[in-house]
Amino acid sequence: MPEIANEPIPEASLTGGSGKQIQELIDLLRRNNLTELEFESHGTRIRVRHEAPVKATTTVVQESVPTSPQQPTHSASTTTSVPETAIGFLTVTSPIVGTFYRSPSPDADAYVEEGDSVKKGQVLCIVEAMKLMNEIESEVDGRIVKILVENTKSVEYGQALFLIDPKAV
Amino acid sequence: MPEIANEPIPEASLTGGSGKQIQELIDLLRRNNLTELEFESHGTRIRVRHEAPVKATTTVVQESVPTSPQQPTHSASTTTSVPETAIGFLTVTSPIVGTFYRSPSPDADAYVEEGDSVKKGQVLCIVEAMKLMNEIESEVDGRIVKILVENTKSVEYGQALFLIDPKAV
Amino acid sequence: MFKRVLVANRGEIALRVIRACRELGIETVAIHSEADASGLHVRAADAKVCVGPADSSLSYRNIPNVLSAAEITGVDAIHPGYGFLSENAHFAEVCESIGIKFIGPSSENIALLGDKAKAREIVAKRGLPVTPGSPGELRSEEEALQAAKQIGFPVIIKAIAGGGGRGMRVVSRVEDLSRAFQAAQAEAKSTFGNDGVYLERYFLEPRHIEVQIMADQHGRVVHLGERDCSIQRRHQKLVEETPSPVVDEKLRREMGRVAIEAVKAAQYRNVGTVEFLLDKDKNFYFMEVNTRIQVEHPITEMVTGIDLIKEQIRLAAGHPLAIRQQDVVLTGHSIECRINAEDPEKFTPSPGTITRYGPPGGFGVRVDSAMESGSTVVPYYDSMIAKLITHGRDRQESMARMKRALGEFTIEGIKTTIPLHHRILEDPDFQKGHVSTTFLERFLAR
Amino acid sequence: MFKRVLVANRGEIALRVIRACRELGIETVAIHSEADASGLHVRAADAKVCVGPADSSLSYRNIPNVLSAAEITGVDAIHPGYGFLSENAHFAEVCESIGIKFIGPSSENIALLGDKAKAREIVAKRGLPVTPGSPGELRSEEEALQAAKQIGFPVIIKAIAGGGGRGMRVVSRVEDLSRAFQAAQAEAKSTFGNDGVYLERYFLEPRHIEVQIMADQHGRVVHLGERDCSIQRRHQKLVEETPSPVVDEKLRREMGRVAIEAVKAAQYRNVGTVEFLLDKDKNFYFMEVNTRIQVEHPITEMVTGIDLIKEQIRLAAGHPLAIRQQDVVLTGHSIECRINAEDPEKFTPSPGTITRYGPPGGFGVRVDSAMESGSTVVPYYDSMIAKLITHGRDRQESMARMKRALGEFTIEGIKTTIPLHHRILEDPDFQKGHVSTTFLERFLAR
């Protein structure tokens, strides 16, 4: 039997993160002139609506995200899924369960930093699963607004990794 | 062991009677220019408020009444309790558990009929309990608006027996 | 068998009785006060009758109204549950006189064993061990002093009509006896309407061990093993378990034999409980007989597989005992935690509405409760809102299961004693079974 | 013993495993799909990992994601529950290769016994009774015809990789064989990805009787009596009971012996179930071995007092069997009703939000469920939302208790099969124990 890892196991609480999420949503709402925010208490489904002059889309935020909004991927694609969100940022989520690495090796530089411009197809990070290194690429041109996970931390399926602003190339 | 009585046992449902009660309350509300009706779903406590020019009182209707509003008695008095209700009628309730008789004997006339005028202290009915005949007297002068229980039926504690209009002497 | 039974109680025990009746194909009539009109026990019954206002002396204890309710609904028996009218000999007598079966012992049994001093006398006469004490009621301070000197200090003064710790005084020194005697008399008078008191040796760190018995109309009696109820706060049991960690097969047989002889001496019928005090050297002394079903009866059901309420009803209907002593097999271990609507540290009552009620489930977990989401805990009655009972192959598993089940139990909107039970289950002394009736006092003082 | 276990399942069985782990002092990790993020099994665990979208082939059955979840949370074992990866030999093999214990039999056991035709062959070679049928896979229509003629009609064609009634065809006349053979092959191919089929005699009104076994690493095996699972709809069990009303002590011993020999022939380890068909003359025939814990395991727990999930974990951790055959005592009778989120007449699924969930309680009642008020029944998985289990001193009490408990069970907001179970419990044939696997079909046609 393997040694038990010493890392803390992820938080079990369902409600732990939602207060933070709501605050973030409210901030985003203000910054982006959104008009509506719906909150359903059971199932904790949060809905943000944007009645923008051009088009209104919806981002569904689910509670499994520890620190930030996410966009669940229902496609069976094996790379990242980056649908456009209402607030104009794209969320890069993990398509697999594994360990998040920001650089190809411990000594190497990070693939990207916050504020960096990235091109479509550029490697953003590695998620290691079953000893395999899975390179996660950007699907758009844009700028890294935020890196949402710390280096070497575990990530679950659908967990948000990066926020990219596709307008700020 | 005694024979089992053939009478149907009282309805067990808690909600069975409340629909009727609410309808009655609404009718009373309209007829009497009441302004407010509160309904609490748990504990099924119904509250009617009357903002009358002179004074506003409240009648609390509880669900244990099968057919009509009632006024619970918290006094330890052994006769009827007839507090004034908001709608101007007085409710005569049973102070004991027993069997309701409208007349002193099966062949005799009923003590009172609907529409009759009654005097304070006049016997309205008998409630038999443990082979004892308990005469229930009116505590006011007034007119019998409604007899709420059929002859020979069982009544529980606090069950409404008569509605009396004290203004219509 | 009865066709229709009136359940003269409320809350979890009323629901417990209704469940047993339903399984036996018996119709049920619930009574309720105005404060309990929407209670689960009321909805669970086939019929219901309001018997008075919230004050139990005017409703659940109101004998004329309860009997009228029985008459108008045509029941052939009344189950009194525990508390309220369950140990009221007069009520049992009136039931007998009007031909409604009181599901419990005879009114004579209740009257006889309700006099705690008399009960001890009868048992002592049979040569059975009773706590050293005054032979009967103490008629004066003189008698009390004489008895105390003979027995040796410390002594405890108890009310003859007592129960629940009221009217009791522990006296360690001869000079304190007079004041304690008067105080106990006064409290007995005000609580029970009877100032009779008696006196017993006071044991340090004893265990409260009780033996469940069942007796039929033909005088046959079996016992169903013991319950260890040593975890008490102010004489109110909080946690019970069976088997007791300190009672072995030999001691069980011996206590069982004495319990059976004691109830035979009183010509007792129906189910009952013989309470003993067990000292550190495993000497046991008869204390009293409880002539009702007890709160903690489920743990005996869990280890014997015998439904005590059903047996109680069958025995009251005149059925003979279906089992012999050798058919009683105790399997595994069971614990009960009484969940009260109280602050778990200050023990102040916490009535109110339960906004969310989620009982635990799974293997070996039983919940006896009349609560549900939206239920209101009214302030007029006992604060116990649920009994959480677990069963396991041994004490270890039973405790692990209790901890797991306590962790799953969700009660929101009011305070409960669940956190206290968590702490007790984590206590090393409790885990080793090293407890006595003084355990909780020391535990809470830590 | 393990320190941390990943529970690779959802719903009631995930919660069941988490409860057992908690009682053993083992930490738990839940996995979940995006559709189950707020499930009770997820909140009950010490940690949780989302492993994919609602579609189970991308989440609960997604081997890389499930194993990654095990790695990042540092577990030392995985419990697969039933369904999903529980009978996937490849998954068990990968677990073994990366040093994470698969809580169940070895991958070889699963592979061997997963081939239903091969399993029958092995058992038949030992001289144990198997249903008369083709010796192994039927390679052609010719072989099928020959086998059918030899056995005699009616026959049933079954998928080698089968389960749950998929890929089965009953053939009464020789002229229908060809079409049925092709249809069964096609269905087997599309359902299991393997078109292998075999053929057995088809019995009229047989009973489905299965024997629970436990086997340790040292090759010791005990059986825990039988379960009668004859109440089925389209090969899905609805009601199970133990003991079977038709199995006496002698037959139980004999079936137990054959079950033990059968699993010994396969060098089986951990808990498992040997399924038999019992005909009207009480001849029994081996059908197959289920290499997982089964949905209906609680009824065996109720009559033996043995926690099968804990035993499964202990055995996987290498502990020897703690009991011998003579220590297995069957006490009383137990029934399980599977409550499905379905229309109780049309059996159409009824997903949605449970607005009010009130489980029954009291003596002899057990509920295994991961539902609560506000839970959402999602449409992606099995429709079973609760298992209601009762235990009584005999079949009579167990049935009365089930009726009582079904009456208490409140599930609002969705349709459930509770009304169907009420009807089954009221059925005179069921009450007498006169049932077979064809019972429900006739019952529903009435």
Write up what this structure looks like:
The complex is a heterotetramer, with two copies of chain A (169 residues) and two copies of chain C (446 residues). Chain A is built from one helix and eleven strands. In chain A, strand 2 and strand 3 (58-61) form a beta hairpin. The termini of chain A are far apart. Chain A folds into two domains: 18-49, no CATH class; 57-66 and 78-165, OB fold (Dihydrolipoamide Acetyltransferase, E2P) (Beta Barrel). In chain A, the strands form three sheets. A four-stranded antiparallel beta sheet of chain A has the order 4-11-9-6, with no helix packed on it. In chain A, strands 8-7-5-10 form a four-stranded antiparallel beta sheet, with no helix packed on it. A three-stranded antiparallel beta sheet of chain A has the order 1-2-3, covered by helices on one side. Chain A is globular and about 35 Å long. Chain A has one helix at residues 18-31; strands spanning 36-39, 46-49, 58-61, 90-93, 98-101, 117-118, 123-129, 132-137, 142-147, 154-155, 160-165. The model of chain A is unreliable at 1-84 (pLDDT under 50). Chain A is mainly beta and 169 residues long. In chain C, the strands form five sheets. In chain C, strands 13-12-9-10-11-14-19-17 form an eight-stranded antiparallel beta sheet. In chain C, strands 3-2-1-4-5 form a five-stranded parallel beta sheet. A three-stranded antiparallel beta sheet of chain C has the order 7-6-8. Chain C starts with a strand and ends with a helix. Chain C contains 15 helices and 20 strands. Chain C has 446 residues and is an alpha+beta fold. Chain C is globular, with a radius of gyration of 21 Å. Chain C has helices at residues 11-24, 40-44, 63-72, 89-97, 107-114, 116-125, 141-151, 177-192, 249-265, 297-304, 308-316, 395-408, 418-426, 428-432, 439-445, and strands spanning 4-7, 27-33, 47-52, 77-79, 101-102, 155-159, 169-171, 197-201, 207-215, 221-233, 236-242, 270-278, 284-290, 333-340, 352-353, 356-358, 365-369, 376-377, 384-392, 410-412. The model of chain C has no long low-confidence stretch (mean pLDDT 95). Chain C binds chain D through residues 15-16, 19, 22-25, 44, 298, 301-302, 305-307, 329, 331-332, 356, 358-359, 361-369, 372-373, 393, 397, 400-401, 403-404, 407-408, and chain D through 15-16, 19, 22-25, 44, 298, 301-302, 305-307, 329, 331-332, 356, 358-359, 361-369, 372-373, 393, 397, 400-401, 403-404, 407-408.
